[in-house]
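Onboarding guide, step 5: your first structure request.
Type a short instruction followed by the sequence, for example:

Predict the 3D structure of this protein.
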Amino acid sequence: MVELRYALRHALVLNGTVCGYLASVQGGWGFADVIEDSERDAVVGKHIGQPRWEELELQLILPLPRPVADWIAAFWTGKVQSSRIEIITADLEQNAIRRRTFHSALLTETTIAKLDGSYDASRLTLKLVFQDARLERASGTVAAPRPLAARQLFPRLQLPGLDCTKVMPIDAFTVRRPVVEHDPRFPLQQGPLSFPNLIVTLPESSARDWHQWFHNFVIRGDNDNTREKTGTLSVMDERSTELVRIGLFNVGIFRLQGPIEIADRLPYVVAGLYCQRMEFTVP
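The system replies with structure tokens like these:
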């Protein structure tokens, strides 16, 4: 019996620029709700409502191509950037098979994976909504570089007055700007931009300054704007190359748990930090 192997890849094209291959693509298909009519006869009547589109989810491997990095950076500043997205499916020889085109696409979420030294941390997830989509056949070859190999990624946190040299992991976090109006008959409308809290783990031996900040900021209530911190979170690979730099503004602490003791591990603490604003850059 002959085993058939049929592998496909998906290339991202952003506003006409080929941005390489994606780690995965999910969603983005059209549908309509089924509406049941009030019962008049022996059988309930059914019809469909307005056409709608599923959210589109894209996963990319760090480091990011410059057009994608700039797109995310603009999203994190609150700019509404309507984009044209194409997903070109190709075989292993980079022969194009089909193309999905998404018109008037808007970013609604960007997620940084958990930074814990694993290879899964190299994936960055984008979620989008869009006004319209088309599926069609494609031909020719895809002029994109070969897919990147996943890297081990680590956090490098810097906050003044705190020992952050042994921070790891930092839990996954998502920047969101949801759509508040998604009627296909009208332009998409987005709500306010929301930045997440950070959940940070570090050894108890490095937490003395953190305990003092928590005591002053939370317990004593010395937490006006002047006591908040400004810092950076860098995403580093195993060769200490900085792939992404995230500026952190108006950072405060709201929780500190520990020391936590479990078998085969040194005692550690877990800190919860709020952050009013973040800035995304690629060095």
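Each response can be followed by summary notes, for example: Residues 1-5 have pLDDT under 50 and may be disordered.
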